[in-house]
User: What shape does this take?
Amino acid sequence: MSRPPAINPRSETVHVRLVNAEKQALLRLAKRVRQPPSRVIRRLIREAVSGDPDYFDDGLAEIRETHRQLAAVGRNLNQLTKLAHRGEALVPGDIAPDLEALAAQLERLAEQYGSTVARVRARRVTQMTRIKAQGE
Assistant: This one.
C-alpha cells in the first residue's frame, strides 16, 4: 500500500551554510525536542513569521487529551442537567460530591492546559530571544 499524497507537499529546498557550532546547536535542539532538524527549522520560521507558538505533536497530544477530558466533564454535567429537566429529584447532598469532583477536574484541566501553552510559549520566547541576541 502506497503512502497517501501530502496535503501541502514540501516542494522547495533551501541550502544554508552553518558554522560547526551552529550545526551542533541545531542537532542538540532537535535531539532535545525529538524532532528532525528540518522540522525544527520550519517550526522556528513559522513562529518567527506568525508570532505565535507552533506545537510539535507532543503539545498537540496534550491539548487533545485535555479536550477529551473536558468533553467528559461536559457529558457528566449534561447527565445531571437531563435528570433535573426530567423532574427527577436531585438532592443537593447527593449531587454535591459529583459537582465538587467536576469542579476539581475542571480546575486540573485549566492548569494542565495553561501549563502546556505556557511551556510552548516559554520555549518559543527563549529560542527567539537567543536568535535576536545573536543577530545583534
Summary: Residues 70 and 106 are 7 Å apart (CA to CA). The two ends are 51 Å apart (CA to CA).
